[in-house]
């Protein structure tokens, strides 16, 4: 294997992680007011020249970068450059943060109260904070938290304030601006607002990128943004967005700073505040517009026990080391650096790979609770239509088995080993009692419940089968969002297991081809770094051989006696997605003429029909996330073409031959094509 | 063997910089002093140096690393002589020698690894023979004989190379002859109508200036090495002088060049000040680093000696302001003869080199000045930096010029800091090279290297390269923080030249020179990645060869190669520099 020399496996079991401390403990024992008014003197960047918010804006408006674009725009539009400058100033006004310590102190006080009622504990790895402090002192820092909740960025600032670390400026979506008071409050706690889309607006882009770069380069404050772009409704990491990462890496690539530290932060919630909200959204109940009153309502609904939060500040990643022997920085030598240029292929692929690496770093340090493993078991049982539920001790046995497996795969599992497993299981179930029903010692998902978390305004007595299905789906998707937290642990082995399952023989090459096909198919669904097929294959092989599931020799892959259980489990992990993608292919095959807009409602209808007639087992296929990912994959693979411009703008052109064959290949009815990577 | 005219090695160190009688040492009281009589600093006590060395490098006077005192001739390989060549050479009457000391003296430049090895008494491949041609025709004869007998020639001028250019390629199997131009040191004529002088290329900078001064002229070409470097060496490396703002760099000064190559003599037919006759063949010669032939005679521009000279200095609150000021001076094209900007570390270093002051009054004044700058003006002593200035010309214009420059400086927060500081700054450029030898006596090794870059990258390169040096030292196991400092030494319309100084205490390292080389290599990578050039004036030699292709493109390399192939197909000039 050609790549073996350069790729060495680290045993994931040996991964070293820091210990956690509960930061709420002190809050429960001392005055919140005194805490909010405490002396705050963070360590700052050593190269910092302190400047005020207004000076910062001036620096942006006077920058060569922006000046160049202003001249360009004024020529193109035939307006004076003063007008364009005015426009730029307005954009900046709308965008800029106004970080104020007093506001942060206000939040520190209120959030202390809120957090103490909502959460049992907020656990932080303090060593990570020490590393962060060092990083902030040495280089400009970019904070990259995972994004699962609205809570995330307030929580981040809250932690940094508590530990006397420099407060970040945070890139936030414009939708927050809708909440008048809160929007301004957030602005004063360091948020700056970016329009969701500004595709062709180069003035906007220039103001925005220059604003971020100037704050970063000068070490004004750590810059924080969400690599995933938006909150993940499924708890799976989202394919990283590259725009902002590109911007923050640029000052290093162009030599304007010696280095930049990227700090991945993994925030895991034992219970997500938005749990049912997300599920509804995925099922097509439109997302409520972020409004102040909405947020309060959400708070009211959710004033119950949300367990604990774990925040892990990862190892700072040096952009310089990432770029070493990857990027030829001298490519920027021949054009003045203030002239905006389209990043080269080399840079784009570098930023992309870095983004995946960072998202994986986030995933790796996400704390998994025992409930996550229970969610696997309960969902699999539900799909297997075991109507009477699972006996508690069977559930416990399976959870313990899964605990050991996931640990071998390197999961960051917080399973209290000093407590008997049965107690661990029952306390997990009780925290999530809204999703499970226990009767006569048997556990199952609470699918038949009426009332409770009902869609508002739905009061009619008679429920249609479709409505019943959707109610069920809310619970299933909520549950799936917990299972999804651990998907990254299993995804590579699961792809291999499914590949073994579908491949016609046990020849290694054939299994690899099949693996490669599946991996490619699902690369919009899971975090799978582009171009790393061989590494992923080897990682999967390594894990399955190490755990005694497989034996692999030069030519063949053999399943061991005790490997069947693991393989069966792993196959079932991927099965909902396999089936989901097949249904999407089937659906598209049966269409003539469809626009992108019509896709989600139409495919949802199609899936509901299939679920009701029992032709489809997995209710979770109703997730619009899966449907969108499937469509994106099909577009990427060329089975569907999106028509741009003209009268047919947005129409999907379908290659039915290809869709058919993809459906069959996914179903294991067709062998996978010979892979491009033949040197295995 | 002929014994030649007085040889330079009799008054110069064989394993260190400069004159044998001049060096830094710690006297019995543990105070630093500079010996000899040649320099302004000579015979003086430098009270601050010890503390600076101890605090900057964590060096310790107890930990000494003395050099081998004398050359052990038995460590030198016996010469590989080409008897046929030698026989014919004898018949020409040109002096030559295969004495070990003569050969070793011409086997190196002043790179750290070269001097370090000599101090340890380690001698590698050295020339087998040294010849001292007396004139152009002697050189023609030597080159002819070398071609006839397939002998490798390495031209040797002042021996101040810092690019490994003088190192004998270890893979060379032929007899290597060092062609020492030092005897070709006459001014052949001075043409006052055209203000040119025709000079033999072996002349050393300080002699050229002295002789021209006698007639009321100067070239104004003053590289920091001018005490020892030769005209031919300047041409061969594309040298740059401190006062280039008035007089120009070597390429601006040269009117006519005569060079002896294996193909014959190359020269132009007239002395027109500018020609459109295809690519300028002078530019094949300038920077050829001894790979094509020997420069024997050069016609150079001369100027009447300046009526008035005035030093000056300006203190800036920080390096950024200083660079902005230099940029503005360049924009207004009003740079004085020389303008240099030292960073904070170098400012402190310069401070440490202040000689003991004789009067209480001067030290009181110094104290007052310091108080004014740091307390009254609020300059942070750990951030401020200083620019040194040299004005030249007629008195009135100098004073006018001075005012213009100080006015610009004031706009960037600069405060005039006196003539003395300026003058000392320039004096230091001549003694700084001696300081490395002192460091090497106490476990400290270091060197300088230079680059040039567009204006907008000056600050970025300075910051990044200094930081890279610190980081690489740490990564490579250097136990103490290094000195990593820089200064802007030249300004141009479109950019500047920057010098980096880098030194560290190597106690605890098993192979300090290798570590040094790795760090310098990384620093050069950093320079290139940030848009700096491979060299502003030191040249490429063998030290920086590996980056030539990326610097000038493959086609560019091919052009240079094809010239080499035509001019010297048998690689007689086989020092293997550049390509």
From TrEMBL, chain A:
<dbReference type="InterPro" id="IPR022284">
    <property type="entry name" value="GPAT/DHAPAT"/>
</dbReference>
<keyword id="KW-0808">Transferase</keyword>
<dbReference type="GO" id="GO:0016287">
    <property type="term" value="F:glycerone-phosphate O-acyltransferase activity"/>
</dbReference>
<keyword id="KW-0472">Membrane</keyword>
<protein>
    <submittedName>
        <fullName>Glyceronephosphate O-acyltransferase</fullName>
    </submittedName>
</protein>
<dbReference type="GO" id="GO:0008611">
    <property type="term" value="P:ether lipid biosynthetic process"/>
</dbReference>
<dbReference type="GO" id="GO:0019432">
    <property type="term" value="P:triglyceride biosynthetic process"/>
</dbReference>
<dbReference type="InterPro" id="IPR002123">
    <property type="entry name" value="Plipid/glycerol_acylTrfase"/>
</dbReference>
<dbReference type="Pfam" id="PF19277">
    <property type="entry name" value="GPAT_C"/>
</dbReference>
<dbReference type="GO" id="GO:0031966">
    <property type="term" value="C:mitochondrial membrane"/>
</dbReference>
<feature type="domain" description="Phospholipid/glycerol acyltransferase">
    <location>
        <begin position="141"/>
        <end position="270"/>
    </location>
</feature>
<dbReference type="InterPro" id="IPR045520">
    <property type="entry name" value="GPAT/DHAPAT_C"/>
</dbReference>
<dbReference type="Pfam" id="PF01553">
    <property type="entry name" value="Acyltransferase"/>
</dbReference>
<comment type="similarity">
    <text>Belongs to the GPAT/DAPAT family.</text>
</comment>
<dbReference type="GO" id="GO:0005778">
    <property type="term" value="C:peroxisomal membrane"/>
</dbReference>
<dbReference type="GO" id="GO:0004366">
    <property type="term" value="F:glycerol-3-phosphate O-acyltransferase activity"/>
</dbReference>
<dbReference type="GO" id="GO:0006631">
    <property type="term" value="P:fatty acid metabolic process"/>
</dbReference>
<dbReference type="InterPro" id="IPR041728">
    <property type="entry name" value="GPAT/DHAPAT_LPLAT"/>
</dbReference>
<comment type="pathway">
    <text>Phospholipid metabolism.</text>
</comment>
<keyword id="KW-0012">Acyltransferase</keyword>
<dbReference type="GO" id="GO:0008654">
    <property type="term" value="P:phospholipid biosynthetic process"/>
</dbReference>
Automatic annotation (TrEMBL), chain B:
<feature type="binding site">
    <location>
        <position position="436"/>
    </location>
    <ligand>
        <name>substrate</name>
    </ligand>
</feature>
<comment type="subunit">
    <text>Homodimer.</text>
</comment>
<keyword id="KW-0472">Membrane</keyword>
<comment type="pathway">
    <text>Glycerolipid metabolism; ether lipid biosynthesis.</text>
</comment>
<dbReference type="GO" id="GO:0071949">
    <property type="term" value="F:FAD binding"/>
</dbReference>
<dbReference type="InterPro" id="IPR006094">
    <property type="entry name" value="Oxid_FAD_bind_N"/>
</dbReference>
<dbReference type="Pfam" id="PF01565">
    <property type="entry name" value="FAD_binding_4"/>
</dbReference>
<dbReference type="InterPro" id="IPR025650">
    <property type="entry name" value="Alkyl-DHAP_Synthase"/>
</dbReference>
<dbReference type="GO" id="GO:0005778">
    <property type="term" value="C:peroxisomal membrane"/>
</dbReference>
<protein>
    <recommendedName>
        <fullName>Alkylglycerone-phosphate synthase</fullName>
        <ecNumber>2.5.1.26</ecNumber>
    </recommendedName>
</protein>
<feature type="active site" description="Proton donor/acceptor">
    <location>
        <position position="499"/>
    </location>
</feature>
<keyword id="KW-0597">Phosphoprotein</keyword>
<comment type="function">
    <text>Catalyzes the exchange of an acyl for a long-chain alkyl group and the formation of the ether bond in the biosynthesis of ether phospholipids.</text>
</comment>
<keyword id="KW-0443">Lipid metabolism</keyword>
<keyword id="KW-0576">Peroxisome</keyword>
<dbReference type="InterPro" id="IPR016171">
    <property type="entry name" value="Vanillyl_alc_oxidase_C-sub2"/>
</dbReference>
<feature type="binding site">
    <location>
        <begin position="155"/>
        <end position="161"/>
    </location>
    <ligand>
        <name>FAD</name>
    </ligand>
</feature>
<dbReference type="InterPro" id="IPR004113">
    <property type="entry name" value="FAD-bd_oxidored_4_C"/>
</dbReference>
<keyword id="KW-0274">FAD</keyword>
<keyword id="KW-0285">Flavoprotein</keyword>
<comment type="similarity">
    <text>Belongs to the FAD-binding oxidoreductase/transferase type 4 family.</text>
</comment>
<feature type="site" description="Important for enzyme activity">
    <location>
        <position position="340"/>
    </location>
</feature>
